[in-house]
TrEMBL record:
One of its GO terms (biological process) is mitochondrial respirasome assembly. It comes from Oncorhynchus kisutch. The keyword Transmembrane helix applies. One of its GO terms (cellular component) is respiratory chain complex IV. This is Cytochrome c oxidase subunit 7A2, mitochondrial. Keywords: Acetylation, Membrane, Mitochondrion, Mitochondrion inner membrane, Oxidoreductase, Transit peptide, Transmembrane, Transmembrane helix. One of its GO terms (molecular function) is oxidoreductase activity. InterPro entries: COX7a, Cyt_c_oxidase_su7a_sf, Cytc_oxidase_su7a_met. It is found in: Mitochondrion inner membrane. It is a single-pass membrane protein.
Amino acid sequence: MYRHIQALQQVSRRTLSTSARRQVENKVPHKQKHFQEDNGIPIHLKGGVSDAILYRATMALTILGSAYVVYELVCAAFPKKKE
């Protein structure tokens, strides 16, 4: 039992002491420069291929959703006749 507690203390000590050594590079100035340059690309597409895919998927879902709403409204406006 004591070995487990001692091992847990050692692991927690190791993770706490090594986490402060890693320095994260500040990428904000690079991103600001990339997004502020005037190259004719809209801001919502400057992120690259992933932004273009997300944009097109969003537009497709919006169009399909709007078409489905119109279809349901037409179905509700003209109910089927019971014979």
